[in-house]
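Hi everyone,

Forwarding the result from last night's run.
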Amino acid sequence: MIVRSFHLSDYYPVTQLLQEVLSEECCEETRQAFSRQLSLDSKLVLVASVEEEIVGLIIGTIDDNKGYYYRIAVHPDHRGKGVGKALINGLKERFIYRKVSRIVVSLDAHNEPVLPLYKALGYSASDFLKPLKPLRIVNG
């Protein structure tokens, strides 16, 4: 498995992954935030590939000097194989490199199912944050 920055050639497989993994409402919100994040800082969008097939995506953003894990999506056939962990750790390294003041998991109704993954990686309730104002990538 390879975790790397998003490339423009990944757009179609990533949008297919989002459609397959996320609910319709979540997918629409995520695609908009994904586009905004790409225009702000594409280095905070990572993909995981296995044999050149995109099997996972994580979207992060920096807002008010906090690094936010915004959305993670892993293909069902590749869950439980370390893809999510690798994506989270890859993005964490980028947040640390950028010297953010804090790294948090952005809380919204769509992220609730993945909170156990973050907890298994050592994140606690204090690391889950519903931003006081919508994130730049959500609010536009």
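The CA atoms of residues 14 and 62 lie 21 Å apart.

Cheers,
N.
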